[in-house]
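Bench log. Compound arrived from synthesis this morning; before running ITC I wanted a structural hypothesis for how D-xylitol-5-phosphate sits in the protein. Inputs:
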Amino acid sequence: MIIRVSASILGLDYSDQTAIDQAVLRITNANYVHFDIADGKFVKEKSFGSDVVARTSLSGTKLEKDVHLMVKDPEKEVDKYLEAGADMISFHAEASKAPDKLLGKIRAAGVQAGLAISPSTTLKSIEKYLDNLDFVLIMTVKPGKPGQKLLKTTIKKVASLRKKRPHLDIEVDGGINAGNAGELIDAGATILVSGSYIFNSEDPKIAIDLLRNA
Ligand code: DX5
Ligand code: ZN
């Protein structure tokens, strides 16, 4: 499967739309812009909402919108992100009482549906949903903040999910850089999320190519 890169804007000054628009132009060789929605309830951090997703135009690029909902009630929140033009939406299994239903709703809207799991959540707990989703987002850091160090223990989770599902897209998120991307790809990851490594790089486009070809 081809390796894709999703550039996270969590570390940027997302209150300044021109800053986001300029950042997008620096990552046009990525596959997705990763919008980390933190609601201050599911995680203690608060980031931004569907207004930022809606007003960040990706027209003129081949970039798509990858929305990661770190929110307490994803069932209540999802419509706003469907309307905001999300191409992929993941929500946390730990925050949903009926993941199946919400996955079905996202897919019915023609959007790729994913379940996200925090480092302490087992694959076992989402096994029953694996036939009703398009991807799994395995958090490689504790959800909420950018700039954390990748938790090596999560790489085993990627490998065991790959073994169970040879063709499923596996997105990994947090603390990813050119130094650990190779190990994640070897374990089976197909979509790499990165914010700090990409945007702190001298040339984000080169950073993206280094991740994809790690
Ligand atoms: C954590 C976020 C971050 C972000 C990437 O909640 O999901 O992982 O996307 O941040 P970096 O690449 O800075 O670790
Ligand atoms: Zn994320």
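What the model suggests: The radius of gyration is 16 Å. Residues 198 and 204 are 5 Å apart (CA to CA).
ITC booked for Thursday regardless.
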